[in-house]
Amino acid sequence: MSELIREMLALPEGHDKLLLHSCCAPCSGEVMEAIQASGIDYTIYFYNPNIHPQKEYMLRKEENMRFAEQHGIPFIDADYDTDNWFERAKGMENAPERGERCTMCFDMRFERTALYAWENGFSAITSCLGISRWKDMKQITGCGERAAAPYPGMVFWDYNWRKKGGSARMIEISKREHFYQQEYCGCVYSLRDSNLHRKSQGRGLIKLGVKYYGDEDDE
Ligand code: SF4
């Protein structure tokens, strides 16, 4: 484990029960261990209808479930309502990553997270999405705060998981656990664009389910 010592975390404004939106095991590994090390009561909420195809969705979900079980953390396996996701993505098929389609995608996932939190006694929500260096923290925080706003007293915890060694520990944990290493963000459009980019570099198309952290050609 990294030499960097984790700081003790505390939920904002005295909140005591957290719902963590998770997208996959690599992004949530460090976040989960950091939250757990701070003694915060939390549950994982897996709601990611953006992930395409279903084979990839199952790979990411089952690995995340396994890791949660290993840590004794409750895992809520929410709907895979892809029809709604595609409906909301209409007209944004060619938007770049970190653009309007991603705002919609975060909004949709966090809206459902906040609703579940409200109905089940969680007063704080957060997401591990921001630990990825490919993501825009400000965009994620904006979506999270918008999702929590309709519910009186609910907060979106905007902690920056990348800081204080978080990014390095994310990689360490992923290698330690030999997590599946996805090679695109998740939706069919990000798969298309990642493959186009690879093609322009003379690389082969993405193969699902073959790359794992810690393997020889890692990184
Ligand atoms: S690129 Fe990622 S965040 Fe953006 S819409 Fe696709 S799956 Fe969602």
TrEMBL record:
Signal peptide: none annotated. Pathway: tRNA modification; tRNA-queuosine biosynthesis. Keywords: 4Fe-4S, Disulfide bond, Iron, Iron-sulfur, Metal-binding, Oxidoreductase, Queuosine biosynthesis, Redox-active center, tRNA processing. [4Fe-4S] cluster binds at C23, C24, C102, C105. It is an enzyme of class 1 (oxidoreductase). One of its GO terms (biological process) is tRNA queuosine(34) biosynthetic process. One of its GO terms (molecular function) is 4 iron, 4 sulfur cluster binding. The keyword Disulfide bond applies. Its EC number is 1.17.99.6. The keyword tRNA processing applies. Disulfide bonds join C185-C187. It catalyses: epoxyqueuosine(34) in tRNA + AH2 = queuosine(34) in tRNA + A + H2O. Catalyzes the conversion of epoxyqueuosine (oQ) to queuosine (Q), which is a hypermodified base found in the wobble positions of tRNA(Asp), tRNA(Asn), tRNA(His) and tRNA(Tyr). Belongs to the QueH family. This is Epoxyqueuosine reductase QueH. It comes from Rahnella woolbedingensis. The gene is queH.
